[in-house]
Task: inverse folding
């Protein structure tokens, strides 16, 4: 694949989870008769974006917006309900276990919870070596792994004596470093980072973010960086995508998004984020109500139930992402009717 | 010396020590913490995990269970020392004079009782109101925390509310008996940013309306900078800095506070490398001699390894425990 | 090794009377089971060594007792003490083997049910529910009427009921472990499902099983004793402690109590010891919130 091929390209990704127990649990008897229900959580509803080599794309949104699900679907922890996932040009959306194996050397993942993302019964050196060992075919190859493991640990700021220890002997920040070493072991082009610093103290967050940036500079990594923390995103991202209820509502280069957010949800998010510097002229948008359930999406625009600007069109027609210039795309009817942008 | 209590002081904590005696050693979770809170003031208690801030909150309310124990110090609520108070007296105080809002609304409400029952219980314990008066008080309180159709919602169960709503209910319960002091332990950490902003506004309004004081315990400097009148910074169980919010954030005197502030990404300087505090928090069972922060401090010198620093006033309203505190204008 | 003696586990163990007494009783039984037959002169199941003239001798401290037979003899002249040692072997053997079989089968089924979910899970759990509605006594009866008595039939009856508790427990633990990110990380690393179950899930679901297994040995010994008492347990040629009780039962009310009571006391000591130690283990292994 040429250098112009995006490291990751996602098209119209959808992920729906049927919920509810076995057949007997789902039997319902009411005025409409006896039937078996199949409620579905619409976690991801048609998401598309592209990440070039060496680029850091952040996905932001609040809980339930589907950003973590997008990350795990791309990592093929789940199989997508619909859509394409092109890793280095190759569509892996419907790959089985064997076909996926070589792709795993191109794409790895870092997880949110430093306490649940490492097997408590495995030594650090085995944790870090695991993805690499899966790629090794011969015993000869496998001999090189221990040395590689030492190198990786050193790269993330740990040392040789840590290799033989167990996760519970490390702090949260150190565990995240172990997770990063594990993801790095196969030298992937893409690392999917699912809220990697959210569970860490502020001073440790800074260490880990610096480490991730250093590794990107050294190895030309791309990151898909999931976060709910806007200040972190503003620091680390090149491009930002904003998600709500499984839809991508806005994408833009980082500076453009923070300077001129267009979607009402983005604007509300930016105005709500607490900041240590006194806020100058950020408009105050307070949202009313709560996020609707992903079992029963509102018709038309999914944000209309809380949007201060919503009008009739918003209930009838679902907005699609439209290019508004400067690399920014917004999914909102206000783009067509800007004079409605007042309260 | 620290500031002396005035007539306006509601809570005066002096040299509080709470230790946990575990098999692997004694954890000095709170190791000589002192501060004062005036009537109607909001104090931010800031620090990272393991710093002891939650333990301070629990100690004030006498909620420390074995193997933990309050080893010394005074907790003076309007002159009365809570550290010496018996369980009976503490029970009168909890919910009435001092109430607490916990981090996780999922677990701080009893899933088997309706919201109305839980609210009613507080009023029955702490007031003499009859059933009708209690019902009216509950409805009023729910409305004032922004829950619509309050009368109906009283008969709902906690799981029928979303996270943000549940936290509003928790706040309503905390405010019902008109306490003078609310201890809020990471009240919005588990909530989304847009909900957090609603809840913080709500708490600010409630406190202002009822003239209550609040201890806001959090690791989030941004939240505390918007809510608190003054801030106390804890590190390894000790107060390292205290002062008015704006003073502390704009010109911190202690290198740890400076390090915390620098760790937060600065929107004005987006791609700059974040200044990080090197190393990790020391093992609280095995603290180094001298200043607890010296192994990670860029300003540490020989004296820091020998002598533990005491809180010294830096100016009229700011104290720091450091031998070489930052002066305004220093760049660490 | 010295690390163990400084550990919190050993520290608590040395302060727990029930743990010490319990493990002492278990250890006694272990010694009896292993070395037993070498400690007694008479092999009670060697017909040639028996002498009918020795029958129904009372324990040594009563009138007519014989120091050669400290706890007395039964109707065939068998030394009760020796019978207990031989019987204990069989009882403990059955308890241990049935436990190992139950644990293996139950754990395997629990892992599969929890990990794969769906219809596999439903089927396994329904079988488990059905299995639990049959007491082992009923199963043993069916087996006996079909294929006769025997130690192996007892083992089958016990295992058929005993696996369920492991399957249920392991399934629950598995369900909660597979949600954890380290399992997802293993998937992203490219491990096949069987390797994930074996290397990641299994080691993390074993801890609660230690307590269950320990206590189950005692439970099985008791059930086997009941089965044998009812005549659907071990055959006469391999009398467990339970069968010994039964054999002495017929003459119990004529005042010849020692042939029944002493084996009963032996069972009681074993199960009591197991339960005491099991209680201690349960508290120790309970993950404590720091």
Result:
């Amino acid at each position: 694949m040429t250098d112009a091929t995006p490291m990751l390209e996602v098209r119209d990704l959808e992920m729906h989870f049927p919920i509810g127990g076995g057949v007997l649990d789902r039997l319902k008897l009411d005025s409409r008769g006896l039937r078996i229900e199949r409620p579905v959580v619409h976690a991801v509803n048609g998401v598309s974006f592209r990440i070039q080599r060496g680029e850091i794309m952040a996905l932001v949104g609040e809980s339930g917006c589907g950003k973590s699900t997008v990350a795990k679907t791309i990592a093929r922890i789940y199989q997508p309900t619909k859509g394409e996932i092109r890793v280095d040009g190759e569509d892996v959306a419907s790959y089985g276990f064997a076909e996926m194996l070589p792709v795993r050397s191109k794409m790895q993942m870092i997880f949110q919870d430093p306490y649940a993302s490492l097997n408590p019964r495995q030594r650090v050196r085995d944790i870090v070596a695991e993805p690499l060992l899966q790629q090794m075919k011969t015993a000869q190859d496998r001999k090189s792994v221990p040395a590689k493991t030492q190198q990786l640990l050193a790269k993330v700021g740990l040392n040789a004596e840590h290799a033989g220890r167990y996760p519970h002997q490390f702090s949260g920040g150190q565990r995240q470093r172990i997770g990063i070493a594990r993801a790095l072991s196969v030298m992937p082009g893409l690392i999917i980072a699912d809220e990697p610093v959210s569970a860490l103290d502020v001073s440790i967050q800074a260490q880990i973010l610096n480490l991730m940036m250093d590794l990107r500079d050294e190895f030309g990594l791309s990151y898909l960086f999931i976060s709910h923390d806007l200040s972190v995103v503003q620091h680390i991202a090149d491009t930002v995508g904003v998600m709500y209820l499984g839809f991508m509502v806005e994408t833009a280069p980082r500076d453009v998004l923070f300077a001129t957010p267009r979607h009402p949800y983005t604007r509300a998010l930016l105005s709500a984020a607490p900041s240590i510097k006194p806020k100058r002229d950020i408009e105050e948008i307070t949202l009313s109500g709560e996020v609707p359930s992903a079992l029963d999406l509102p018709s038309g625009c999914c944000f209309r139930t809380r949007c201060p600007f919503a009008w009739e069109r918003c209930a009838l027609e679902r907005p699609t992402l439209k290019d508004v210039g400067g690399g920014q795309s917004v999914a909102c009817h206000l783009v067509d009717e800007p004079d409605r942008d007042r309260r | 010396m620290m500031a002396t209590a005035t007539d306006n002081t509601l809570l005066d904590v002096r040299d509080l020590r709470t230790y946990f005696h575990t098999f692997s050693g004694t954890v000095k979770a709170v190791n000589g913490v002192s501060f004062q809170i005036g009537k109607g003031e909001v104090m931010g208690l800031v620090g990272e995990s393991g710093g002891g801030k939650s333990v301070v909150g629990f100690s004030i309310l006498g909620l420390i269970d074995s193997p933990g124990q309050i080893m010394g110090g005074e907790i003076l609520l309007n002159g009365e020392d809570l550290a010496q108070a018996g369980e009976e007296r503490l029970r009168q105080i909890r919910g009435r004079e001092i109430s607490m809002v916990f981090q996780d609304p999922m677990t701080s409400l009893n899933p088997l009782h309706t919201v109305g029952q839980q609210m009613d219980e507080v009023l029955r314990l702490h007031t003499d109101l009859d059933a009708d008066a209690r019902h009216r008080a509950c409805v009023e309180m729910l409305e004032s925390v922004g829950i619509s159709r309050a009368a109906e919602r009283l008969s709902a169960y906690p799981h029928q509310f979303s996270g943000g709503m549940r936290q509003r209910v928790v706040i309503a319960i905390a405010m019902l008996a008109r306490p003078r002091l609310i201890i809020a332990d990471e009240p919005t950490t588990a909530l989304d940013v847009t909900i957090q902003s609603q809840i913080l506004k709500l708490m600010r309004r409630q406190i202002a309306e009822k003239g209550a004081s609040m201890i806001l315990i959090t690791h989030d400097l941004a939240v505390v900078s918007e809510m608190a009148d003054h801030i106390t910074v804890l590190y390894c169980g000790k107060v390292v800095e205290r002062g008015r919010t704006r003073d502390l954030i704009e010109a911190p005197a202690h290198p740890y506070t400076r390090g915390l502030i620098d760790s937060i990404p600065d929107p004005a300087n987006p791609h700059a490398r974040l200044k990080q505090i090197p190393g990790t928090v020391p093992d609280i069972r095995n603290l180094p001699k001298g200043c607890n922060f010296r192994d990670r401090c860029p300003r540490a010198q020989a004296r820091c390894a020998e002598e533990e620093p005491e809180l010294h006033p830096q100016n009229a309203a700011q104290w720091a425990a450091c031998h070489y505190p930052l002066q305004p204008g220093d760049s660490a | 090794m010295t690390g163990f003696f400084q550990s919190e586990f050993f520290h608590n163990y040395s302060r727990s009377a029930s743990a010490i007494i319990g493990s002492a009783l278990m250890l006694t039984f272990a010694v009896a089971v292993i070395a037993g037959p070498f400690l007694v002169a008479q092999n009670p199941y060697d017909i040639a060594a028996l002498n009918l003239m020795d029958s129904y001798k009372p324990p040594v401290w009563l009138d007519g007792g014989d120091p050669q037979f400290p706890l007395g003899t039964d109707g065939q002249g068998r030394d009760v003490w020796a019978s207990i040692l031989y019987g204990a072997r069989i009882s403990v053997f059955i308890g241990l083997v049935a436990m190992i079989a139950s644990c293996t089968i139950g754990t395997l089924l629990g892992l599969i049910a929890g990990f794969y979910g769906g219809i596999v899970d439903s089927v396994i759990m329904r079988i488990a529910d059905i299995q639990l509605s049959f007491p082992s006594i009923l199963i043993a009866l069916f087996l006996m009427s079909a294929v006769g008595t025997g130690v192996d039939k007892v083992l089958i009856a016990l295992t058929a009921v005993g696996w369920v508790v492991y399957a249920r427990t392991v399934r629950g633990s598995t369900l909660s472990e597979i949600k954890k990110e380290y399992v997802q990380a293993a998937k992203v690393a490219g491990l096949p499902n069987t390797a994930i179950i074996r290397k990641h899930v299994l080691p993390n679901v074993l801890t609660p099983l230690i307590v269950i297994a320990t206590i189950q040995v005692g439970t099985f010994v008791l059930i086997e004793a009941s089965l044998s008492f009812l005549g659907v347990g071990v055959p006469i040629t391999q009398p467990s402690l339970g069968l010994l009780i039964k054999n002495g039962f017929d003459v119990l009310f004529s005042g010849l109590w020692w042939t029944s009571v002493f084996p009963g006391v032996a069972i009681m000591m074993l199960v009591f010891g197991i339960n005491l130690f099991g209680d201690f283990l349960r508290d120790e292994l309970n993950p404590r919130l720091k």
